[in-house]
Structures are given as C-alpha cells and as structure tokens.
Amino acid sequence: MKGLVITTENKMQVREFGEPAYETIGKAVGGWIEVVHPKGLPDPFCMVVNEEGLLHGLPLNLFGCILYDTVRHGNPIVGNIVILKEGFTTPGERDFIGLDEDDVEGKATNDPRAFGKQPVWKRMLSVLMGPGMNFLLPLVVLVLYFWIGGVTGTEALVADVEQGGPAYTAGLQAGDIILDVNGTAPNPENASQSLTELINASQGDAMVLGIRRDGERTEITLTPFYDTETGRYRMGIHVSAAASGEMLPVSFGEAVRDSWNVCVNAATIIGQALRDMVTTGAGLNEVGGVVGTVAAVSEQVNTYGFAAFINALVVISINLGIMNLLPIPGLDGARFLFLLVEAIRRKPLPQKKEAIVNLIGMALLFGLMILLVFKDVWTLMGH
Q1: CA-CA-CA-CA torsion sign (87, 93, 97, 98)
Q2: Three-class SS of residue 19?
Q3: Is residue 357 part of a domain?
Q4: Where is the domain boundary, 248, 281, 311?
Q5: How far apart, in Å, are the Cα atoms of 300 and each of 293, 295, 305?
Q6: What distance in Å separates the CA atoms of residue 268 and residue 53, rounded to the nearest whole number?
Q7: Looking at the structure, do residues 281 and 204 belong to the same domain, yes or no?
Q8: pLDDT digits over 125-171, tens only?
Q9: Residue-level pLDDT, tens digit, the chain, 383 residues
Q10: 34 with 144, same domain?
Q11: Rounded to whole angstroms, how far apart are CA atoms 156 and 186?
Q12: What is the 3-state secondary structure (H, E, C) of 61-118?
C-alpha cells in the first residue's frame, strides 16, 4: 500500500509500505503506531502517528496538528505522520491494524504490548527510564575513563593560614603546596584528607613540613596544637585539593567509587543551584541555552583538553536528568505526576485535559528555548 509521509520538518514523501504493515509503518513514525481519523481528512483516509510520541518528547508536527485540529482538541500531534487511504471499512470490520470501526479517535488498541495497556507501575517505570539514562550515561563514561586512563592526582594546597596559629608563626603562606610531613607524602588520591590524618597522627610532636613555594622546595618546622572543638591536632591552616597533573592508575572498583562520588557531587551542586534560583533568584542572569553551552564547552575543551569534554558531558547529562524530573508539563516529571495521580485515583486523568496541560507546557518550554538562544547570540556578539 502507498502512503504519504509528512515529517516534523514539513517534508512530504509518497512511500510504499509492505507487509507486515504495522512494522513498516512503525518505522516511518518511529515506534508503536496509533491510528486517528481527524475531521481534516476526508473518507476513507486516516492518519497514523507514534503512539508514544509525547512520552518520548518528539517534536510537534505542524501539518498533523492542523489536520487533527489541535487548537480545538488540545491533543498535539508529534513526530512523523503517515496518511493512508485505508482507514474506514464496513461496520463491524477492522482496518489494516486491527482497530474497531467505532474507535474513531484511535485511542484503543488490541495490542497487549501497547503503552496504554500496561499497568500503571510499568508506565511509571517507563517514564523514569529517560531521566534514568541521563544519570547512568555519565556514570558509565566516568567509570571507563577512570579505569582506562586513571584519576588525576591531587596536592595539598594551603588555601588560608589562621593568624596566631602554629603555621602562621612558622611562616607558612597561602598558596604553598605541602609535599610531605616528616618525610611522608600525603596520598595523592585525596591529598587534603591524607594531610589531616598525618597531622593528627603526630600527637602534638614537632613536625617538619616539606613545602613547594614559587617552584622551589623548602622545609618548615612547627608543633601542632590540640583543638578541643574538633577533637584532633591542627596547625591552623585550611587546605584544599589542587590537581597535580599526574594520572594515577585505579582498579575497577575504585573507578566505580570515584565515578559515583563525582556524579553525586555534580547532582548536589546542580540541585542546590536550582533551589537558589527558585528561592532567591541567584544565578538567573547566568542561565544560557544551547548556543551558550556549546561555546562554553568548546572553550573549555580547547583549554583543558579531553578531560574538560568528559566533565561537560557529565554535568550536562545530569542536569538534563534533573530538569526532566521536574513536574513541568511536557517533561517526564509531569507525566510521572499524572501517572501517580492515576494510581491514587485508580483511574486515568481525562486525556484532553492532560494533553492541553502538556501542550501549554511545551509551548512555554519552546518559547524559553528561543529566548535563551537569542540571549546567547546577543552575549556572544559582545553586548
């Protein structure tokens, strides 16, 4: 049979569909098929769409929305569509994919594998699979990156020196790198934590610190004091971890551990940034779109190399996962919320109302994306 394929880019092509029809047509629309009989099409034509198009966030199909009269019905048509001269038969018979003739809107299907036929908990799990992949991808990439290439070693950088403390009296300065304590170097995998343990292990005895200042090694002797508030020995400095530039080999288990910690830290930072943005408006001026993100990532990769690309991939993927879980209409978070309400009520929400909410949400999201693109271009032009 022949059909007219209309893509989301408004391109049209007459195509021959072989048997089995549901498979060949399914490839054209990109998934499980659903038949609708819009009033914009005369008998005996029908329109085939992707049944899970909204779930997968496919782009709007302008011709499909016009034919279906989305403005009035509220149900957006997304993804590629196929127009076929095959929809209507005599009463009681079935059309080419097995829909009853009285199913004029194509909402019912006899296929037990269809999304709408699944228990609500399975549909909820399916909705969460998209954001879940956003979290799984960076974890897998980091594990492979650390396992094959190793992790970046760290050095104990003196970030601040407390006035009046042993370190201040001995002449330690901010910016110094502590190389060793009594000849023992801090563990490069976590230099700052290792240095704290070395100092505490001195039990108040005098220590000789090997430090690097302005590229030269020197030694400083001091005696730590016991801090009753923390219950450990200190020398009055604040230490941070600085990248040493050395790549350290790690086992697969260590790669998994380090990758998990990086992903958790990234998700925590992004979550805190979103919270501050909503509660105080902090960071709103720094929000960018696709153009700004590509420009920033390109600059980082040119400066710091492949490691910057991996870091950007992790942050962007986790950020997409978190954003997609927000209960904003048109996103998976809202779809999950609708299914949760369905599970509590033990009956689904009205499809037209849900579709209208999703359509409004998608329109707002598209509008925001366009505004951010203009903002990025304006910024890159130096304004």
Answers
A1: positive
A2: coil
A3: yes
A4: 248
A5: 11, 9, 7
A6: 31
A7: no
A8: 888 888 889 899 999 999 998 898 887 777 888 888 988 889 899 99
A9: 788 899 988 888 888 888 887 788 888 998 888 888 877 677 677 889 998 888 888 888 888 888 887 766 667 889 999 988 754 333 443 444 333 333 433 344 455 666 667 788 888 888 888 888 989 999 999 999 889 888 777 788 888 898 888 989 999 888 888 888 898 888 776 777 888 888 888 888 999 999 988 888 999 999 999 988 888 888 888 887 766 666 778 889 988 988 998 899 888 888 888 888 778 776 666 666 666 677 777 777 777 677 778 888 888 889 889 988 888 887 888 888 888 988 898 887 777 777 787 778 778 877 777 877 777 677 767 65
A10: no
A11: 8
A12: CHHHHHHHCHHHHCCCCECCEEEECCCCCCCCCECCCCCECCCCCCCCCCCCCCHHHC
As given in the structure block, the two tokens for residue 11 are 């391109």
The whole model's pTM is what? 0.52
Domain count, the chain: 3
Angle value at C-alpha 351, between 323 and 328, nearest 5 degrees: 15
- Residue 261: partners with Cβ closer than 8 Å, 6 or more residues away: none
- Considering only CA atoms, which of 136, 134, 193 is closest in space to residue 324? 134
Domain hosting residue 167, numbered range: 152-248
31's CB contacts (< 8 A; 6+ apart) are: 50, 51, 52, 53, 56, 79
Instruction: Kindly state the DSSP code that residue 234 receives in the 8-state scheme.
Output: E
How far is C-alpha 376 from the chain's CA centre? 20
By the 10 Å C-beta count (0-12 exposed, 13-18 middle, 19+ buried), 119 is classed as exposed
In a domain, 122, yes or no: no
